[in-house]
């Protein structure tokens, strides 16, 4: 076994390589200096398959007639919209864009709806940060469109969505239609990046990511955990409680579901709770 350098510690983000996260981690360390630099590495543990595209295309073409608005809580949902639009021929394409720009869209964060921003489509609720907070936001006076009592909102979701949004509508006897637009699957035989050894941190982006790695033979008590938001943090806490292994609890939780907030949460915790040991062992 080899020893890692005392000068650097590794953060593994459980997602495909994304410069926004490595850049954010590096930038925030210029504001909050650390004894030992954190460097970003990536490990994609989930793959996503988009489903029900013909149904989504038909829904978008008739959006104004059928729905009072759209709710999305995942970047995959906004990507599903962007990809479905590509399948819609002229002149319907321009009309779908017009309808989307004129329809009430609600999202948990700017990163979640970034694929729509590129099409000139804006979303409300982007400061909420989670499905639970968005559910509360939706029912503030004047937020939902007037037609929400007669036409259902459309909730675009994945196969592992939480109950926060559907329950909020059910409790108020308001119409909501769900359409599953993507499915998530663990990548079989995935590997952590070569040469990482024992990472200082692992950053989780979903409860599914936790399930994908929880049985990987790592010295988990030595590894700090970060969560992109409260939903993922709750999954880590539940797993810690169920297994009675409190080291699974997230030490850092992003205040918003984006790269800057996640990197800042990690760096600030690291700054306030520095590791005393001089090195970690390579696997």
Automatic annotation (TrEMBL):
This is Uroporphyrinogen-III synthase. It is an enzyme of class 4 (lyase). InterPro entries: 4pyrrol_syn_uPrphyn_synt_sf, 4pyrrol_synth_uPrphyn_synth, UROS/Hem4. Signal peptide: none annotated. It catalyses: hydroxymethylbilane = uroporphyrinogen III + H2O. Coiled coil: none annotated. One of its GO terms (biological process) is heme B biosynthetic process. It holds the Pfam family HEM4.
